[in-house]
Design brief:
Elements: E1 5-9, H1 18-21, E2 26-29, H2 31-35, E3 44-47, H3 51-63, E4 68-72, H4 82-89, E5 94-97, H5 102-110, E6 118-121, H6 127-136, E7 139-143, H7 150-160, E8 165-170, E9 179-183, H8 185-189, E10 197-203, H9 242-252, E11 259-263, H10 269-276, E12 280-285, H11 288-300, E13 306-309, E14 324-327, H12 334-344, E15 348-353, H13 359-368, E16 371-378, E17 381-386, E18 390-395, E19 399-406, E20 418-419
Parallel strand pairs: 1-4, 1-5, 2-3, 2-4, 6-7, 11-12, 11-14, 12-13, 14-15
Antiparallel strand pairs: 6-20, 7-10, 8-9, 8-10, 15-19, 16-19, 17-18
């Protein structure tokens, strides 16, 4: 079958090869790409704005067996127009000639490998996903868009990950206008960056230089979860037991692009496990020594957790809306805390309680906020050695785990909005 649509990536600063345009009847692209080439005599030119009308014009030419060239930035198969063209016309009708993407060029300017980077597009998408990925991962490239540029990213990260370094790459490939600047999130928030930004890199420089990799993309998800209590520093066995944590994680469903709150975090075991599974995490803890333990446990497991020292629900107002919440403490204030979390959570709230008489009020708080509610009493007995090389069963304290899922909540596919 012929391939009537040629999709040419201009690369970063590299011109489109002249032979690509030979014989073209229609040339489609952004204004700057069209202005940079000499169109064949008689070829129609369509400046890309809204995509649907441009695709309709392409369909007319393809239907008349006329040749179309689409000009794009960098690698048009990487968060580019190839997806839309393939869905409309079929991939077997495309002749794709990629250039060098802005992401590859930006990392090259820094002399950094990027096979372990997470790439997230904020162009025409919810900027919250980009912010959360930047919080959770040490090496991120953000393809920016209106309302999701360096200033917006910087403002969000200045509150939750102020130690990150933002590398703002503008007009990549332009011999006069190209700029690659390293700024703090706060500095990025205070600037007007204009429209020339190509890509923003977000780096946790303490973790950015990882080891050689076999698989590209973010750090491979852990082979296991529900780690043993001995894998965390904790006080007087005040830690969510691994059996409870296993079910809590299953109901929370933490993943790349999510924000999870761990309220009454204690040792931070749930917070750390959610971060190991790729989510951004805010851990709320009222005890000062607990704050130190959470930070130590996060560092031990190589993850970043935003720790908030304060009492819930008062400190929750300053946090971004979460996808999922785990409530592991609260005492007499538990119903109010659950209600405050339920008002903000987009998907799920999970509550762990040792006192059975607190279950009705917590359940009422969830159902009152429009959640479908379910729960289970977890009772487990662990193998424990006895003298004489024999084994007994040692019972752990029973815990009631309650969870609510928001009615009609949408569960995105794994990695939605994120290149993995």
């Amino acid at each position: 079958m012929s391939r009537p649509i040629t999709v040419a990536g201009a690369g970063t600063g590299a011109p489109v090869a002249e032979d690509v345009l030979v014989g073209a009847d229609l040339v489609v692209g952004g204004r700057r790409h069209l202005d940079a080439v000499r169109l064949p005599a008689g070829a129609e030119r369509v400046v890309l704005g809204p995509l649907a009308p441009a695709l309709d014009t392409v369909a007319e030419y393809v239907g008349a067996d006329r040749r179309v060239v689409v000009l794009a930035s960098g690698d048009p198969g990487f968060f580019g127009i190839v997806r839309a063209l393939a869905e409309r016309f079929g991939s077997d009708r495309l002749d794709v000639r990629p250039g060098v993407s802005s992401v590859a060029t930006a990392f090259a300017r820094l002399g950094l490998a990027w096979d372990d980077a997470v790439v997230v597009s904020a162009h025409g998408r919810d900027a919250r996903t980009a912010v959360r990925v930047c919080r959770a991962h040490p090496k991120v490239a953000v393809l920016t868009g209106p309302g999701a540029g360096p200033a917006e990213l910087g403002a969000a990260l200045a509150r939750t990950a102020p130690g990150r370094v933002l590398v703002v790459a503008s007009a990549l490939g332009d011999p006069v206008r190209e700029r690659v600047e390293r700024v703090t999130p706060a500095e990025a928030a205070d600037r007007d960056w204009g429209a020339a930004v190509s890509v923003v890199l977000c780096l946790d420089e303490a973790r950015a230089l990882g080891p050689a990799r076999t698989l590209a993309g973010p750090v491979v998800r852990p082979a296991g979860w529900a780690l043993d209590e001995g894998d965390f520093a904790h006080r007087d066995s005040m830690i969510t037991k691994f059996e409870v944590r296993a079910l809590a994680l299953a109901r929370l469903g933490p993943r790349v692009g999510d924000l999870v709150w761990d309220v009454g975090s204690g040792s931070g075991s749930v917070a750390v496990e959610c971060a190991r599974l790729g989510a951004a995490v805010s851990a709320v803890e009222k005890a000062e020594d607990g704050v130190g333990r959470i930070r130590a446990n996060a560092a031990l497991h190589g993850v970043d957790v935003h720790v908030v020292h304060g009492t819930a629900p008062d400190v929750l107002d300053a946090l971004d809306d979460p996808d999922a919440v785990f409530v592991g403490g609260g005492g007499r204030e538990l119903p109010g805390i659950v209600a405050a979390c339920a008002r903000r959570a987009r998907r799920t709230v999970v509550v762990a309680m040792a006192a059975l008489d607190r279950v009705p009020a917590a359940r009422a708080a969830l159902t009152g906020a429009g959640f479908d509610c379910d729960g289970v009493l977890l009772q487990s007995s662990r193998l424990a050695p006895l003298p004489g090389d024999v084994t007994r069963l040692a019972a752990t304290n029973p815990v009631f785990l309650l969870w609510g899922s928001r009615n009609g909540s949408r569960t995105p596919s794994d990695g939605e909005g994120v290149a993995q």
